[in-house]
Amino acid sequence: MRAVRRIDTALGRACGTLVVLCLAGWVAGQQLSMRHVSVKEGLAQSQVRAVTQDELGYLWVGTSGGVSRYDGRRFLTITKEDGLTDDFVWSLAPTVDGGVWVGTDRGGVARWDRNRLSHPLAERGLPVSRIRALAVDRGGNLWIGYREGLFRSDGSGCALFAPLAVDGLLTAPRSGEVAVLSAGGLWRVRGDRVEEITVRSIGQTGHVAAAVFGDDDTLWAIDEDGRLWRRHPDGAVEAVPFTGRLPRARVLRVTRLGEIWVGTSQGLFSIEEGEVVHQPLRSGATDDVRVLFEDREGNLWVGTNGDGLFQAVRGAFRLFTAESGLPTPLVLNFAETPDGCIWMATLGAGVASWCDGRWGPRLTAADGLPGDRVICLAADGNNLWVGTSDGMARVDRDRRRIRVWRAGEGILHNSVFSILRARDGAVWVATEGGVSRFRDDSWTTWASGAEIPGLHVMSLAEDGAGAVWMATYGGGVVRFDGDNFQSWTTRQGLPDDRVWCIRVDEQNRVWAGTDTGIWVHPLDGSGDFTVTTRSGLPSKSVWFLVEDIHHRVWAGTTRGVALVSPDGRVDRVYTDASGLSHIEAAQNAAFRDSHNRLWMGMISGVTVAEPGMLRTNMQPPTLVLEKVLVNDRPLGGFRQLAAAADRPVPRFDLGPDENDLHFEFTALSFIWPERVQFRWQLVNHDRGWTAPSSESRAVYRRVPPGDYTFLLQAENCDGVWAPEPLKLAVRIRPPWYATVWFRLLILAGVAVLSASVVGFRVLAERHRRQELERIVAERTADLARANRVISDQNIKLEEMVRTDPLTGLANRRALAEMLPEEIAHLQRVVRQGPATIEERCLAIVMLDLDHFKHVNDTHGHETGDVLLERIATALRSAVRGIDLVVRWGGEEILVVARDVKSRGLRGLVTKLMRTVANVTVPGRQGRPVRVTASLGFCLYPLSRAGGVTREDWGKIIDLVDALLYVAKNTGRARACGLIRTEEPLSAESEADILRALLRDPRQARQGLGFVEIDLPGPGADFGPAADPDAPDGRGDNDPA
Predict the structure, then answer these.
(1) What are phi and psi of 675, to 5 degrees?
(2) Is the dihedral of CA 93, 98, 102, 108 positive or negative?
(3) From the centroid of its chain, how far is CA 918?
C-alpha cells in the first residue's frame, strides 16, 4: 500500500520560519580543507609555539621539543643533540641574509645559517629566562623580548632598550617598524625610545589581546572583549564591526587578501562579510590555536597546542564534514529546490539541507521517509522525490505530506538508485529491479533482464529529444525513446559493460562513467571517443560525472576528481592533497546548482567547487641544492645552494677517484607540494634533460674524468618552471698516468733514448721530434675545438629550455621570463594616462586548433605534427618581431602582442584566424588537410586604476581561456573577446574587474564590450576531418 503521512516536524520547519541551531552564537557551515602536519610526518613535537619562513622559503616551526625546518615534503629537526641549548622553542625570526634566529625557554638565542648552528649572543648579558618574542628590523638588528624588558642586538653584542614586559613583537612589512605588545598595550620603536600607539577610539578601554600588521602596514588589534580595531598608517583609528561572539583571542592574522583570522583557546575563527565563522581543524583536533602565519604563496599555517600544524588549503573548494555539521560522512546525491536550499541524501541520517548559508531542516524516517539510508534525490518544483534502500517517497513541502511507495506498489524493488524528473513532468525511477515511470498519478514499469539488459539500472539521464538514457550494471548503456530500447556494449565500443553513471551535457553528448574509463557519444553522429587512464584519468573506475559552466566535465574516480575538457583532454586531477574532503568519490554524488557551484560527495564529506575560482599558480618554486655527496661523503666546502641568475657558478675540483656523485635537492612550494616535479642534466655526461619526476635526488656512478655542469630545474603544481636552472660545476681530474704531461714525458724519454742509441739517425730523430710537436699542437687544437663545442652546446642548451622542440615557438618559461619587463612596461603606460593606454595596449590572444584530434586520428600523428609546425611558422610570420608566440600546450597557442592600438585588435584577431585557415598540408591519399582555430582575446590593462601586477597575469590567461571556450561552444572557427568601447575605462581595480569577468566573460563592463568575430570567406569551419572531400561536404558536425 502507498503510505501518506502528515508531518509537522522537520518538514514543517522547512515550510515556515527556518530555525538554525548555532553554538554560542558561532556560525556553523562550510569549512576550509585542512592539511595536517604532525609528528607522524616528522614534526619535532605537537605543541607549536612559533612559525616563520626564511629568505629561501623554508618553513620553520618552533615546538616544545625542538625546531623543525619544512620544505613541504620533508622535515629537518634540530634539538639539543644537534647543539640547541634548550628544546623548548618559543620564538623564531628570519635574518636578512637567509638565517634564522631561535629563541628558547632557558637556553638563550641560537642562530641557524644554512646547515650550521651557532650561539653568537652567549654570555652577552642577556637574561636566562624565557624569550617571549623575536623580531629583525630593516637594518638587521635583532629585537629580543623578555618579561624583564626589550633588548636590541646587532648580532654580536646586546643591551637593554626599554623596560617593557614584552608579550609579543610585530614588524611592519613595508616600513620595517617594530611594535611591542606589552601588558595589554602597544608601543612602537622610534629612534632610541618607545612610544605608545593608540589603537582604539577615544573613550574606549580594554587590554589588547593580540595584534598584527597588515600587508599595507595597517595595524590590527583585538582586545580582551573581542572588539576589533585597525590603525591606518596615517594614524586614523576605526572599529571593525562584526556580528557573533569571539572567544578571547590568542593570536590575530590579516592576510594579503584581506582575510581576518583569529586563533583562540577554543579554536580557529574567521570574520567573513562581517560575521564570525568557526573553522574546524579536524575531528578530534586540539582547539587551542597558538600561531597563525601566512607564507609567501598565501598559505595560512595554524599552529596548535598539542595537535601539530595545519595548512589551510584555500582556493576553489569548500568542505562539509562532521566538524562543520554534516550529520554523516557519506552523501550520495543532491537536489535544489526553488528557495535555493541544497538537499543532501545521506547514508544513515536521512535528508540534510543547506539553506542560505546555514544548516536547514532534516527529513528522516521519524518524519515519514521509508528509511534513513537515502541514495538519491530529485526536485519537482518545491517538492522532493527521495529514493532510499527501503522504498520511494515524494515529499509535498507545500501541504507538509510524505507519500511512500515500496516494491509492488509501482516500483520494482525497494532499493532506489536514481531519480530523473523529465522535462514533460514524468518522474523516472531506477531500482535494483528495473525502471519505473510515474505519470498522471500512475506507474509504468520495465524490468531488468527482460526489457532492459543488465542486472541493475544505476543512473538515468535525458537528452535533448526527450529520450531516457540508462547506465546499467553488466548491460552497458541503454536508450529508451518511449517505444524502443537501444543498447551500446563493448561490441559497439563501450570500454566496459559495467556503467556506474551517465550524463547528457549541454552540447547534447552522452557521457558514461564505466569501470574502465569514460565513454563519450555525440548525438550528432560526429564520432564516439573514450577517456581512460592513458588519457590522464587517475583511476579506471568513474563514479560520477558533472558538467561545469565552462562545459568541462568533472569525473569522480577512486583516486581523485579529473577535470576533463570537452574534447576529452584531462587538464587536471584533484585529490585530498589539493583540497577535496577525500580522495575517493561516491557513486552518482555530483550536482551543479543554480549558482554554477559543483557539489561532490566523496567517501567522507562533501566538496563544493566554484569553477570560476580556479586559478593557475604562476609562482615558480624556489630551487635549493641541499646536499652533495662524493663517494658517499659530504663534499668539502659545499653549503646549501639556491638558484640565482646573478651569482657565479660554484666550481669544485675532485680527484681521479672521486667519481661517484650524489645530489639531493628540494623545491620550496607549499601549494600542492606533491605535484612539484624536477628535471636535471649533467652536461657533458647526459644526452639531455631527464623526464620530469617527483624524485628529489640524482645519483651518478663512476663518472669519467672531465668538466661537468649539473643543471637542475623544478616546476610547480600547475607546470610553471623555475625560470633559471640551478648550476653547479664539477671537474674530475684524470689520474697521473692519464694526464697529457705524463704522456708527453714518456714520449720525450723515448725520443732521447732513441737519439742516444741511434746517433747516426739524428736527422730521423729530429723529424720524429717535429712530428711529436705537431701531434701536441693538434691535441691542443683539438682541446680548443672541444672547448668551443662545449660553449656552443651551452648556448644551444639555453635556447632549448626556452623553446618548444616541435614547433620552435617560445614555451611557458620564455613567457615567464618576459613577464617582469612587460609588467614594468604596462605600469609605465598606465601612469602616462588614458590616452596612452588606448594607444599602447597589450593584446593577449589564445588560439585552439579546431578538431585537431580528428586530424591525428584520420591522417596520422606525423601529418598532425607537420600541420602544427607550419601553423606555428605562419603565425610567427603574421605578427611583429616584438610580439611573442607561445605554444601553451597541446594544440593551444598564446599570442602576446605589445603596444597594440585598441582599434586595431579586430584586425589582428582576423589576421590570425585567416593565417591558420590558409595553412594546408598533404594528408593521406594526397588530400589537403587544414584546420580552423577558435580564439579568445582581450586587451590589457582592463582599467585605468593602475595596479598592474604579476599576480593578475594568471587571471588574464584564465580570462582569455574562458573566452576561447565561449568561442568553441558557440560554433568554432570564430573568436570571442573583449574590446574597448567609446566609453572611458572603469576606475575599478584590475583584480575586481577580472573577478567579475571570470564569473561571466560575456558581461559588459565600463569601457569594455564583448564581441564575436567569425572567420570571413570560405572555409569558416573545415570540420573534424579537416578534409573538404568528406562525404557530407564538411566532415563531422560539431555539436556546438
Answers:
(1) -90, 0
(2) negative
(3) 37
